[in-house]
């Protein structure tokens, strides 16, 4: 399953084809995992947040969400550099969905209740690579902070 998805994501023939909904969601999940691992502190809070995001995005039960996250962890570990990975997502996923991905990324970045410079810069990088403006990324971040009840000065 994982090898098939990796080949669908990164093969030359896949450039002009759309990912299936499931493939796209696993690719997004892998991006969430990549962000969570950015500061070398990939802990329970981040895994739980990713599971919650996946459950809400795909209407999954907790076990299926955790299983999808585990698949995403394997995909992320084998995916090429972030630039290539995000370019493929950008080419295959509509802008409105990519903006929602940035919101999910901010949610994972704040999962442990604190702002990490590594995660912050990584979300900003991914925003640009996915074609989401700084303004839209900032709006997504503010929405996440409000939803999480975090008052950042």
Give an account of the 3D structure.
The protein is an all-alpha fold. The protein has one domain (20-148): Orthogonal Bundle (TerB-like), CATH 1.10.3680. It is built from eight helices and no strands. Helix 2 (21-36) runs antiparallel to helix 3 and helix 3 packs antiparallel against helix 6 (95-109). It starts with a helix and ends in a 5-residue tail after the last helix. The mean pLDDT is 85.
- Percent strand: under 5%
Order of helices and strands: HHHHHHHH
Q: Specify Rg, calculated over alpha carbons.
A: 14 Å
Tally the helices. Answer: 8
CATH superfamily: TerB-like
Largest sheet: none
Under the CATH scheme, the architecture is Orthogonal Bundle
Query: How many runs of DSSP E, i.e. beta strands?
Result: 0
The N- to C-terminal Cα distance equals: 44 Å
Domains, number = 1
Q: What is the CATH fold-level name?
A: TerB-like
Structural category is: mainly alpha
Shape: globular
Unreliable sequence segments: none
CATH class: Mainly Alpha
Overall pLDDT: 85
What's the short version?
The chain is mainly alpha-helical. It has helices at 2-10, 21-36, 44-58, 62-78, 82-92, 95-109, 117-129, 134-148. The mean pLDDT is 85.
Helix/strand layout:
Elements lengths: L1 H9 L10 H16 L7 H15 L3 H17 L3 H11 L2 H15 L7 H13 L4 H15 L5
């Amino acid at each position: 399953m994982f090898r098939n998805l990796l080949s669908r994501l990164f093969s030359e023939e896949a450039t002009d084809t759309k990912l299936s909904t499931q493939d796209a969601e696993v690719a997004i999940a892998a991006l969430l995992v990549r962000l969570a691992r950015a500061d070398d502190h990939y802990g329970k809070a981040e895994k739980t947040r990713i599971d919650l995001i996946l459950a809400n995005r795909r209407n999954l039960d907790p076990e299926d969400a955790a299983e999808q996250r585990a698949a995403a962890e394997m995909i992320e570990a084998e995916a090429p550099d972030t630039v290539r990975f995000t370019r493929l997502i950008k080419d295959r996923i509509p802008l409105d969905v990519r903006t929602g991905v940035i919101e999910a990324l901010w949610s994972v970045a704040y999962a442990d209740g604190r702002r990490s410079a590594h995660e912050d810069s990584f979300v900003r990088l991914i925003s640009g690579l996915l074609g989401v403006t700084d303004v839209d990324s900032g709006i997504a971040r503010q929405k996440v902070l409000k939803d999480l009840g975090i008052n950042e000065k």
